[in-house]
Design goal:
There is one protein chain. With 264 residues, the chain is of the alpha/beta class. Helices cover 50% and strands 14% of the residues. It is built from ten helices and nine strands. The strands form two sheets. The chain has a seven-stranded parallel beta sheet with strand order 3-2-1-4-5-6-9, sandwiched between helices. α1 (13-24) crosses α8 (210-223). The chain is globular and about 55 Å long.
Length: 264
């Protein structure tokens, strides 16, 4: 019987790249996201090329109870998940108090609550079976405060911390938890986050491809690594950032996100 992977946010970007990798590796796939048309095209493509079973589930994981609904729907189909890729996420842009509350609430629901809930549900299942793998997509943003992208940075810090704690607690159970922390990646992230033209994130930091990020994440997950930071330059950034004052971090991130040192 084939192993099965559940990938959230699978229709594009890093999620799509993960789906490509797991399909080639012979996994059956459950792909979840909002764009059912894209996912159904992926299903047809993978099943024709790799002869695996692909199940597409339309779900907006930013909404209350959506993670439980996804879990229940998959269980009702009799599908057992061996690998969970918590990839779905969204960005924000603007001052915290200026961003509409519902947008911030939806970001928290997608970037944090759904990740936490799916990890809780499937982590419990995997521990009972004696093994499984979970990868949570965080970011290098997890290490810094994020003026003008406040909830995005905070949500990635949440995932970075939770993943490490849960990984330690799961030692000896057969369940592996990996936290993937990429830098800027060539997806539609900046467009969906409605970043301004003066944002320096994708000009100062050379973006990686989604395929590069997913491959490094996949390799780290299979090796049982707790933290995966793709590319040496971001490993170096992580090391250097430990020595900067919090004020310097705030100022530099403000410059990256807005092109200026001071807020409006």
């Amino acid at each position: 019987m084939n192993r099965t992977v559940l990938i959230t946010g699978a229709a594009s970007g890093i999620g799509r790249a993960f789906a490509d990798i797991f399909a080639k590796e012979g996994y059956d796939l459950v792909i979840a996201g909002r764009n059912l048309e894209k996912m159904n095209r992926m299903k047809e493509d993978y099943e024709a090329r790799y002869h695996n079973t692909v199940t597409s589930v339309q779900k907006d994981l930013s909404k209350d109870g959506a993670a439980e609904e996804l879990y229940d729907e998959i269980r009702e189909k009799g599908i057992e998940i061996d690998v969970l890729i918590n990839n779905a996420g969204v960005g924000d842009y603007g001052r915290f108090i200026d961003i509409p509350w519902q947008k911030e609430r939806d970001l928290a629901g997608l970037n944090m609550i759904s990740v936490m809930r799916l990890m809780h549900l499937y982590g419990s299942d995997m521990e009972r079976r004696g093994g499984g793998r979970i990868l949570n997509v965080s970011s290098i943003a997890a290490w810094e405060p994020g003026p003008y992208m406040p909830m995005y940075y905070a949500s990635k810090a949440f995932i970075f911390s939770l993943s490490q704690a849960a990984a330690k607690e799961m030692e000896g159970t057969g369940v592996v938890i990996t936290c993937l922390c990429p830098g800027p990646t060539a997806t539609n992230f900046e467009k969906e986050a409605q970043m301004k033209a003066d944002n320096r994130m994708f000009t100062w930091f050379r973006p990686m491809s989604a395929e590069e990020v997913a491959q490094e994440g996949y390799d780290a997950l299979m090796k049982g690594k707790v933290i995966c930071i793709p590319k040496f330059r971001y490993k170096a950034f992580r090391f250097v950032s430990r020595f900067g004052s919090e004020k310097i971090k705030r100022d530099l991130t403000c410059i990256v996100n807005t092109g200026r040192k001071h807020g409006s």
